[in-house]
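Progress note, project year one: complex with copper (II) ion.
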Amino acid sequence: MQKPILISICVSILLILGAFWFSSRTPSAYNGSAVSIVDGKQIIDISAKGGYSPRVVLARAGIPSVLRVSTRGTFDCSSSLVIPKLQYQKFLSPTGTEEIPISPEQAQGTMQGLCSMGMYNFQIRFQ
Ligand SMILES: [Cu+2]
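Model obtained:
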């Protein structure tokens, strides 16, 4: 076999193994500290870097809320945030905090956030 072919096979195997390793890491789910209520307003904190954390957030339904997504040196696609239920789509800056208002009417059921490729996701379960 020719050398360039061997190298490209090695690289692709490494990429596949890397992808498996990334997806098998157990992300922190059900993080209670992600939700706080300040002056009757619910604040939901999600951090975006190599995916979203926590992956599942339990929040209170039907109260005015703010989804606060923070990035910190986030150069992967989790900075490209999509929240279908809110018809929200934005490229977040690599480092910063984005505040996304959620009305009491929107704070119902399960809200999903995704990276634009659909590779990473998180869920807010309003209950
Ligand atoms: Cu992605």
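The longest helix spans residues 3-24.
The beta strands are 35-38, 41-48, 52-53, 56-59, 65-71, 80-83, 88-91, 96-102, 110-115, 121-126.
No further modelling is planned for this target in the current period.
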